[in-house]
Write a structure and sequence with these properties.
Layout (H helix, E strand, L loop, with lengths): L2 H43 L29 E4 L17 E9 L8 E10 L12 E10 L2 E9 L9 E7 L12 H7 L3 E4 L1 E6 L5 E8 L6 E9 L9 E5 L1 H10 L4 E2 L1 E3 L4 E4 L6 E7 L4 E9 L4 E13 L8 E12 L5
Parallel strand pairs: 8-18
Antiparallel strand pairs: 1-2, 2-5, 3-4, 3-6, 6-7, 9-16, 10-15, 10-17, 11-14, 11-16, 12-15, 13-14, 17-18
Length: 343
């Protein structure tokens, strides 16, 4: 064999060997793809899903359309470390206990979930901006196994006047938030591991008015108008009930500038408006600046006792961060009862 022929054969061998190696690498890469896919599936399999009910019918699907989403049945305040039958207003200055029910699994994962339950408070009302308007109460680490687990968080040194909106957040690396921005109503509706409770018991005695704080806010980056809508399950007139909204100087001037838009209301003081029919009243065109939250007062009174508890709701409606023009931005359910003066 001549030198030329030997060189040609060596060249052919190198070319064929290179092609074979390329082919081998291509096959290896192709056969590696399923391994990567299996890894992704493994990660997906680790996804857990713990949820807290926003309403009784809530099954953990996010987002949902249930309302009001700010009266979670899974958050309860009790005066002792033993869970009470019905949630109560916190007692100022002492240690109260908040019981939160965590449900596992929801529709988006399975298996035990390790994380931290965090609890926050703010002034009752709507438009509470996350996290600006919220104050931490406490946090507890836990492992949530399949079923319903009740986690208890002590609430020490409750400040006066003792009326708050509460927010519970289950934070877990395997159960991430879907979306979380400044708009708390959107956060609650789109994350089944966030729940919000704003229920206040109002015990009236004939002739003795009771005052409750209420706040409205704007989580958007531009000015926006909001409405306050008042509803009741039964007429407050049954107990000679009277409701007066004291907007305060700033908010009253904004209501005036907005055209004094209102239904079933009349002015009874410099900044006070009486609800003539509390179950049908509306205050509209309240202008709020970006990131602003303003507080005012609601005054309740009754003339007669009753054995029944009347649910009276105040809700803020306005635009939210999803583009909805008239969204439920939050509110308060007042559970009104009226007893005798000697009780």
């Amino acid at each position: 064999m001549g030198d030329l022929e030997k060189r040609v054969r060596r060249t052919v061998f190198v070319v064929l060997t290179g092609a074979a190696l390329v082919g081998l690498l291509t096959i290896t890469a192709a056969t590696a793809a399923p391994a990567t896919a299996r890894s992704e599936k493994s990660i997906a399999a680790d996804r857990t899903d713990v949820y807290i009910k926003d309403v009784a019918a809530d099954t953990g699907v996010q987002p949902h359309s249930y309302n009001p989403l700010w009266a979670s049945p899974d958050i309860k305040v009790c005066p002792t470390a033993i869970e009470c039958a019905v949630s109560q207003n916190p007692i100022v200055g002492v240690t109260n206990y908040v019981f939160v029910k965590l449900r596992n699994p929801g529709p988006y994962g399975s298996g035990p979930s390790t994380g931290t339950l965090r609890l926050y408070r703010t002034t009752p009302g709507g438009g509470a901006i996350w996290p600006t308007n919220w104050t931490a109460i406490g946090a507890v680490g836990a492992v949530i196994y399949p079923g319903v687990t009740t986690v208890t968080i002590p609430w020490t040194g409750v400040p006066g006047p003792g009326h708050f909106c509460l927010l519970a957040r289950w934070v877990s690396g395997t159960d991430p938030m879907t979306v979380e921005g400044p708009d708390i109503n959107v956060n609650t509706r789109y994350n089944n591991n966030i729940a919000w409770r704003n229920v206040d018991s109002v015990r009236l005695v004939p002739g003795k008015p009771v005052v409750r704080p209420f706040a409205i806010g704007n989580a958007l980056k531009e000015r926006a108008f909001s409405d306050l809508v008042f509803t009741a399950q039964q007429p407050l007139q049954d107990i000679g009930g009277r409701v007066i909204v004291d907007l305060g100087k700033d908010l009253f001037e904004r209501w005036q500038a907005g055209g004094k838009v209102g239904t079933e209301v009349r002015q009874v003081g410099e900044t006070q408006l009486e609800l003539l029919e509390p179950s049908k009243a509306v205050l509209g065109n309240l202008l709020l600046n970006p990131g602003e939250r303003l507080e005012f007062s609601i005054v309740f009174s009754a003339q007669a006792p009753t054995d029944k508890e009347i649910a009276f709701e105040v809700t803020q409606f306005g635009p939210d961060s999803t583009g909805e023009k008239r969204a439920d931005l939050g509110g308060v359910q007042y559970l009104i009862s009226a007893g005798k003066d000697d009780q």
